Amino acid sequence: MSVSTSTAATTLRFRATERHGEVSALLVRPREARAMLVLAHGAGANMRHAFMEAIAARLAHRAVASLRYQFPYMERGGGGPDPQPVLLETVRAAVGAARQAGEGIPLFAGGKSMGGRMTSLAAADEPLAEVRGIVFFGFPLHSAGRPATGRALHLPRVTVPMLFLQGTRDHLAHVPQLRPICERLHATLHVVNDADHSFHVLKRTGRTDEEVLDELADVATAWMAGNSAGG
């Protein structure tokens, strides 16, 4: 794993898979970090997307480190996501890179939309070493406008606690369908009223997107603190 430093974060490179080679990552590690979150991007946005940048910055302000990383298809410049086995192997490699960079900081993993789901699929296949919980920033439960629950079938095989951060206007997750799923799992569901899949809220709600991002960071930070013991 090679390392270079930028003004915003430390830039890392780690091997995603033997076939696909190295991918980039951004490490933000505040002094006296109390936890680290391995944060995967969604299907159509890379690790430098505004949402990823904003969440990483807010977590750092709350003494939570983060490692954002690219899946190989985004490292190549975009296009459709890699086959699922490649995505899952990359998740495992990213957790390994974060474990090395974190030097004992309590470790969590997850991501935005597809990135969170791929993290949970990897954990369902085999526990992610030293990861104490999974954080979903908008779990993609179903295709847009087509409520279903098949994408959650693997979740009972995840052995660590899970945090679902979900907006009530999310077109990829009908909250009334997600709620009973979470109740059957070792999971916490935090619903953000009036937020869509990108956690955008309409002006008429009287809230701003920045306030919603603060809420997400507050809830995630408190939840990680509550699940940092042991491991």
From TrEMBL:
Keyword annotations: Hydrolase
UniProt-recorded Gene Ontology molecular function terms: hydrolase activity
Protein name, as recorded: Alpha/beta hydrolase
KANL3/Tex30 alpha/beta hydrolase-like domain location: 34-224
Top-level taxon in the UniProt lineage: Bacteria
The keyword Hydrolase is assigned to this record: yes
Database matches in SUPFAM superfamilies: alpha/beta-Hydrolases
InterPro entries, per the entry: AB_hydrolase_fold, KANL3/Tex30_Abhydrolase, NSL3/Tex30
